User: Fold these one by one.
Assistant:
Number 1:
Amino acid sequence: MTINFESKPKSLTEEAEYINDVEDISYEDFISNSLYLRNRYQTSLEEHFENLKSLWLEETKLSSNVFMTLRHPAHLNIVKLGVEVLPMILQDLKDHETHWFYSLLIISNENPIKEESLGNIDSMIGDWLDWGKSKSLIK
């Protein structure tokens, strides 16, 4: 059996990354096509998100360095979870006004904050929540 790569890896590291990407896509397809597993995965995803969020907020609550806060491993892991956590982040933004702006920008690759909202946290939250409603991510 011969495996044809779309582009041949130049190193073992590139091959490992390619296999990891294929594995991730296959796993996501498997989960998304199984109602039982999707529901079970969603529950564990929510728990995982809440655990990471709690750890991130607890360990950065006294930090005034925004770069250290955003580079905290728990925050980076939340961002890695991708678009599936957008509803959870938006709900937390709505409920607790946690500053998720950078995370939302990175995960969604969109920035709905209006120019006139910049610097006004309530308006920025409102812009993101309106965006989330327009994408049917929150009610």
Number 2:
Amino acid sequence: MPNLVLIGAGDSLASLCAAVDAVAGHPKPVGCVLLRGEPADVPKARILGTLDDLPRLKIRHELDTALVCFPSFMTGAAERTREACRALGIEVRETPFVGDALCCKPPASAGDPLALIGRRPRLADVRRLDAVLKGKRVLITGAGGSIGSELARLAASRDPEQLVLMERSENALFEIDQEIGARFPKVDRRAVMHDVVDAEGTLRIFQETRPHSIYHAAAHKHVPMMEDHPAHAVNNNLFGAKAAADAAIQVGAERFVLVSTDKAVNPSSVMGATKRLAEQYVRGMGQLGGTRYCMVRFGNVLGSSGSVLTVWRRQIRAGGPVTVTHPEMTRYFMTIPEAASLVAQASALEPREAGGADVFVLDMGEPVRILDLAVRTIEAQGLSAARPGEEGAPGSIPITITGIRPGEKLTEELAHDAERLMATPVPGILAWRSWPPAAVELHAMTLDMASVRFDPTAEKVLEALRRWTPSLRPAETPEVVVRDLAARVCQI
């Protein structure tokens, strides 16, 4: 007969005990284990301890089986329990919580990012999605990334003529290609392992596939990492965008969409500066006619690879601490599906609908304090949080302040002071009619950055970036560089 223990939290443990007691002719459990020291409508005599006590209880009671019950929103707590049991050689059997079936409005879960940031999801206008996806040849760069892969799923669901998945990571490309093939078997798709920075190769692929709609999502995004590797940021974020944008007009694409970021506004980081320059280049391309060029700018994406939620969940599973860089830091947030849907809808807006705008800014609601988001994330896992400087309840997850990392701001902006945003027919999308840089300035910038894109000397790359993004740090003004390089342009 197995030595059975019941594990749960609060009401779920109480209902589990009642259900087990109501069934005759089965092994009686040796007792109950709470996730932590929270109240439960279970006799104290039956409580053996908390999940932290499980190693000791395993030896004392020779436990070999655990019957586990948690509400559906406590996914993190359930996984933490499974891992603890596996480590001790305890077989896990799970049963659903009856409260899930009775509750018509379940609480916010760790798997429900919009609930964490306190916003309702925005519904997609499928007519606009179909205008740019249905019956179209759609090409996505960075198709294995968080936004790229969601754009791929969205495009595949709208019955495209062909879906081209361009990605340089073998594993990422394999995974999204397999997923699209399984979920949308009728969609004609092509998986292309290619680095968009290779301009000649990019043009060749565009010529072979002749895409109508191009979504350029490939980019380096981690701010501290790019501070240490500025040449990589320049090469990938600027010249990757340039290669794709140049190829788009050469093959007569209908539209080209640059997926940008709020960090491109008054950039203080290398990543933000390179995305800012990519915006400038794409804006310049929009003056050539033919292909419709636009940019879609938004903030942090919850649940993306390497995002704060991913990091925090890993830290919570390890028992903490959960790290926050500054107690007053705020960010704009949206979910991956919401971001991808709004990117596609923005690309469908015609110039007359958006006042001729070529920059679209996603309305992300009010900025969220990172510290508050950390607390909500911990609590959504069924745990209690101990804020910095607080002792917290027994078994709570501590939050520690680590300090702002290189290139980070306390707050982000979605638009420059001079950018007057206006509403569009699509809820959640704002537009700005920008004035592109002069052709000679754009060419000078491209030449200047091309001279350092492979330079191993970080300071040389930073000097060039400062010339074109003064907010990075005061440096030589672009006008001087334009004057000096204009002569070189004329000689080429």
